[in-house]
Amino acid sequence: MPLSHDHIRTTVDSYLARHPHEREQLGAFLDGLDWIGDEIASRSTFTGHITCGAIVVDGLGRVLHVLHLASGMFLVPGGHAEAADESLAGTALRELHEESGIPPQAVAPWPGYETVPFDIDIHDIDAHPGKDEPGHQHFDFRFLFRLHTSTEVPVVLQEDEVGDIEWRPVDRVTQPPLREKLLKLPSMIEPETANASALIYNDRGEYLLHLRDYFPGRIWEPGMWSLLGGGREPQDATLAHTVRRELTEEAGLDLAELTPFGTEYASSNDGATVPIAIYAGRWNGDPRELRLTEGVMLAWFTPSDLHRLRIADTTSDLVRRHAASLPASAAPQSGFSSPEERRPASPNGTVLNVIGVHLYLERPNGTVLLGLRHPTSAFAPSTWHVLAGHCEQENAIACLIREAREEAGLRIERQDVELVHVVHHIDRVGDRPRMGLFFRARAWSGEPQLREPDKCTEWKFWDPATLPDRLVPYIRVAIEKIQNGELYSETGWPA
Description:
Elements: H1 5-18, H2 27-36, E1 49-57, E2 62-68, E3 73-75, E4 78-80, H3 88-100, E5 107-109, E6 119-125, E7 136-147, E8 162-169, H4 176-183, E9 195-201, E10 207-211, E11 225-226, E12 228-231, H5 239-251, E13 259-267, E14 273-282, E15 297-301, H6 313-325, H7 339-342, E16 354-360, E17 368-373, E18 384-385, E19 388-390, H8 396-408, E20 417-425, E21 434-441, E22 456-462, H9 473-483, E23 488-491
Parallel strand pairs: 1-7, 9-14, 16-21, 20-23
Antiparallel strand pairs: 1-4, 2-3, 2-8, 5-7, 6-7, 9-12, 10-11, 10-15, 13-14, 16-19, 17-18, 17-22, 20-21
């Protein structure tokens, strides 16, 4: 069967979220996707159809080009989708293998581009009377990969389509728009990075550091203060998954938001340089209440404390650079904090609450929409949840309308929205508090679609009297309260 409309639309939406200025130039494709549907992936759709390419970068920073006999040009490997292809990126990998002999396991997605194309290009294809093909357009999805430096790959060309192969420096990439994007590619996270750490800070401008066990020769940086984190494991889809898994395993810590900050270039025991992807996150809890499974202790420190600690220069520099990037209102105070000062600011101080916006969508028959979260989700994997999201630089109703469109393809108008419940909740004592706003949509257009299959695997309307067992606890409470007409509830707070 052809690649699904939902998969294509989700991929395009993710791409346009990064490149909103390209929406106009992709207008012909977007129009075709709306009225052609799944058939836009078929090579027999001559109003225009999808092709997929693989941008492969080797250890020297060169980009793979193959000589396509049909065009007589050196281009990145790529071609048409086939019925057996399960994803757009899978099409690119299959074409890479067929045209160059490089197998999928010899490359890895560039971090941050695991499911999002690096480039989408529209170009004209001349008519081919011999094949009874009229002139048409190709909508070319190009995915970015890194060749494993430890892999020796024999090149086997597809002789009926490919005449030669070249590894070209980025400044000699054939197609100018692609070349310009590659030249601007951020080097903040090196593609070979296999380690990730968390730079955790609080509202007082302090940073959470981990005192390692003193086992010289057995562990890295013995007896030194460091960041929580570790090495990538086979089950980790991305380095973001790596750092979340390490936080859970080492300290039982689950942060709502972690954002890429940069790379620490540390030195291993043998003197080799080890790049570590750094993800920053805010937390206002008490480290003494965490379940530490490795090392000696966790503690908060200000950047001005670091010169007193046994800590790597690269880690100190990283903390200071992050502190300098914070607003002046978040600037840390000098000197060690007392044990009492290191305790969570609440209830004696101000703590910023995370605002979550939730959609309560009820059909006329009384059933309520729930989504099944992806098994790899950092929060509540394989558990049912309502459609929800965090407020960005926007008001709550605008957030609701945006999330409904992005996650499920639902169209909701502002005048059809009403607040029906507020739940103030925490997962554990010391965690950052959250305020969940539940809005009912009195009317909407569209049926729920899987627009973000990496986050939600199924939408289903449930009878509130027979909700699933695996349901996020505060959602169960909120649905019950909404059914009873109650506007406010609290969960997780100590009695």
